[in-house]
Amino acid sequence: YQECVLLMNEMDIEVKIPRLSKYQTKRSNHPVNNIEEYYRVSLFIPLLENILEDLRSRFIRKENKMLLDLCLLIPRYITDISNDDFKKITEAATELFVFNEEESVDQIELKTELDLWKTKWQRIKTDGHEICQDALSSMENCNSIIYPTLHKLISIIACLPISVASAERSFSTLRRLKTWLRSRMGQERLTGLALLNIHHTLTISVDDVINRFANTKKRNIDFVL
């Protein structure tokens, strides 16, 4: 608060409480004794409560804790997990996911796959080889035939977003693309333009685009040389 006061004094802005009214209900109208207390009650405490609520909803919910338990499937963690961690993983998988229509995850089958998966990476670590550090590389090294359930679980872990930045970026892109002048744009064209805008850093070969366009159907002009 004191830093804000100094900054406002440098800018010749008076630090004061907004006009209070006895019957005001549309904005902060707290009965306080000084300016600092007013901004503490009106701004700081609501902001702090909002942050705490976001943290609780993101990390303390039971479902989120279970998803964090599934991250133990990554080889860098699974080589050192205990039987209690095995139990957490099986409980999370059986409670959260249903893969085959209405058939839930088989705990015995999952336990067997976990034992094989842990033994494999313990052997690799003992031999001095490098083990996988993330979900993507773990998914590439997880055989879907030998570890069918584990492969699905690791695929889910790899798809979990770290933040909502990608989704927000997509919304911003669509807001720029879907204008009133493009109100009749189809879904396929909109998706293509959005992907081009979002992934603008990727290099696209013009020759590959022409060849793909030419091979989609027979055309009057021979594009492929």
Automatic annotation (TrEMBL):
Coiled coil: none annotated. This is 52 kDa repressor of the inhibitor of the protein kinase-like. Transmembrane segments: none annotated. One of its GO terms (molecular function) is protein dimerization activity. Residues 141-200 form the HAT C-terminal dimerisation domain. It comes from Aphis craccivora.
